[in-house]
């Protein structure tokens, strides 16, 4: 790694945990409950994941429907998305998710080595809180120095805003950061903010193009990490 990494910035969905199937189910459950005849199957959802943010995803989906189909205004979309979030959080609290292998030991070692941690995610703070409470028994503020969540920015990934916010709020240099991402749009956001980037794709993003990534690993378990990162965290 080019410079000593002083801060590791974790993406959330797909990186801390394989969350997207649960998000997809929460969207579909919500559509059903409000009487919308929309259903996002896996291949539709894979395509929709090119758009970060649930509200933005709904808007994009709707824009491709034929004229005459139901058209939701911003306010309706916001209400729909709030319902989806409530469903998702309820399921997470009930234990529907677990961390990706390797995440817990990376976090533990980083804390021991006094490497700062941050989170940068297009999802909302409540979702991140439910995830870390359920999977690590902690509020995310106890783990991460700063939480850049989708509710704080105008433009989500692949825009650089979330990563720029981390740099600004933590007063740190991009060259001293390593971002860990699972998707192309996430990687583009981190690279756009001039960060070294490690990609470990999640299930929905196995076919994404990660050409611009600095590092790549199929799994985040210690033995699969790039050598430099393994040394930094575990030696
Ligand atoms: C993932 C996203 C989110 C989730 C759904 O973000 O783009 O939109 O798919 O969550 P990241 P919301 O990989 O940056 O963590 O419905 O709350 O947007
Ligand atoms: Mg992600």
List keywords for this structure.
single chain; 235 residues; alpha/beta; 6-stranded parallel sheet; 10 helices; 6 strands; binds xylulose-1,5-bisphosphate; binds magnesium ion
Determine the structural class based on helices, strands and strand pairing: alpha/beta
Helix content: 40-55%
Q: Kindly report how far apart the N and C termini lie.
A: 15 Å
Series of secondary-structure elements, N-terminal to C-terminal:
EHHHHHEHHEHEHEEH
Percentage beta strand: 5-15%
Bound molecules: xylulose-1,5-bisphosphate, magnesium ion
The residue ranges in which pLDDT falls below 50 over 5 or more consecutive positions are: none
The spatial strand order of the largest sheet comes to 3-2-1-4-5-6
Q: Tally the helices.
A: 10
The radius of gyration computed from the alpha-carbon positions, rounded to a whole number of angstroms, is 18 Å
Report the average pLDDT across residues.
97
Profile the largest sheet.
Answer: 6 strands, parallel
| Number of E-type strands | 6
- Overall shape: it is globular
């Amino acid at each position: 790694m080019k410079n000593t990494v002083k801060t590791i910035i974790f993406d959330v969905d797909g990186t801390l945990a394989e969350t997207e199937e649960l998000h997809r189910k929460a969207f579909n459950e919500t559509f059903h409950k409000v009487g919308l005849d929309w259903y996002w199957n896996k291949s539709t959802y894979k395509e929709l994941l090119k758009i970060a943010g649930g509200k933005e995803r709904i808007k994009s989906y709707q824009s491709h429907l034929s004229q005459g189909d139901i058209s939701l205004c911003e306010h309706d979309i916001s209400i729909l998305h709030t319902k989806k979030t409530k469903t998702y959080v309820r399921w997470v609290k009930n234990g529907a998710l677990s961390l990706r292998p390797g995440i817990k030991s990376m976090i533990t070692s980083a804390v021991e080595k006094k490497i700062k941690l941050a989170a940068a995610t297009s999802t909302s703070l409540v979702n991140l809180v439910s995830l870390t409470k359920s999977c690590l028994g902690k509020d995310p503020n106890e783990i991460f120095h700063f939480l850049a969540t989708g509710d704080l920015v105008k433009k989500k990934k692949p825009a650089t805003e979330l990563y720029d916010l981390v740099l600004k709020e933590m007063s740190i240099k991009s060259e001293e950061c390593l971002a860990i991402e699972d998707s192309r749009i996430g990687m583009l956001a981190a690279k756009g903010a001039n960060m070294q980037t490690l990609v470990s794709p999640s299930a929905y993003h196995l076919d994404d193009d990660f050409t611009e990534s600095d590092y790549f690993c199929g799994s985040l378990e210690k033995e699969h990490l790039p050598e430099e990162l393994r040394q930094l965290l575990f030696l």
